[in-house]
Amino acid sequence: AEERMLAALAYLQCAVGCAVLARNRETNLAYGRHASPSFRVRVPARAAWVVQELPSLALPLYQYASESAPRLRSAPNCILLAMFLVHYGHRCLIYPFLMRGGKPMPLLACTMAIIFCTFNGYLQSRYLSHWAVYADDWVTDPRFLIGFGLWLAGMLINIHSDHILRNLRKPGDTGYKIPRGGLFEYVTAANYFGEIMEWCGYALASWSVQGAAFAFFTFCFLSGRAKEHHRWYLQKFEEYPKFRKILIPFLF
Would 189 be classed as within a structural domain? Predict the structure, then answer.
């Protein structure tokens, strides 16, 4: 019954992703520089990132510590869950403390992020620790190897792009600047491209409905953000490179 429920939750995640994609075509996104002044209750940026990402870190750690997680006796399951854990370990414990300033996050956006990270953290960690079955040699399967490579490359792109964004301003600067270097020479949202690539690799390596649902939702959510960023840069800077794509080099 739980295995069927986890599959149903994955399909629900896909449906929510479609709804998010449709909504992003109709309204602006309430976050960061795009947040409406009507959102008066806000959470400091560093605290918001730690709190909202924490469920996706704590739930896999709980499964690793649990004695009733039968599938974690298998190396492929352990590695796949570790891939999920490494990302959220960075997002929760490292990324927030590297931030320079950062605009306070609307409480509503932070709350929705907490709900998602709790939902997805449970879905991914519970599936990999209790139900996903892989052969012992799955780690040598081309799907796993290619997926792992995409995951690693995507995470490195994401981290490098965040580094570029953090260093756009010199001490004392308050204005916005055009990102330069790395994949920002080709797309507006290089950091989002890296994260989407990361979770597509994870989905391929896990070869599961649950992993694919997460990758699909990530694309739906971040593509809307990327489009908004791209529009904002074009309006803000007359010299913004017109050849840059929104999210995917040479395509979109």
Answer: yes
Range of the domain at 205: 1-236
Cα dihedral sign for 197, 198, 199, 203?
positive
Which phi and psi angles does 238 have, rounded to 5°?
-65, -30
pTM of the model: 0.93
Q: Is the pLDDT of residue 157 over 70?
A: yes
Domain membership flag for residue 245 = no
Q: How many whole angstroms from its chain centre is CA 161?
A: 13
220-249 pLDDT, tens digit per residue, is 999 999 999 999 999 999 999 999 999 999
Q: Please count the structural domains in the chain.
A: 1
Q: Please state, in angstroms and rounded to a whole number, the distance separating the CA atoms of residues 24 and 58.
A: 30
Find where tokens 């301003």 sit. Answer: 169
Q: Confirm whether 252 is domain-assigned.
A: no
Tell whether the model's pLDDT for residue 173 goes beyond 80.
no
Dihedral angle of Cα 155, 105, 25, 191, to the nearest 10 degrees: -20
- The residues near 157 (Cβ < 8 Å, ≥ 6 apart) are 182, 183, 190, 191, 193, 194, 197
Question: Widest CA span of the chain, in angstroms?
Answer: 59
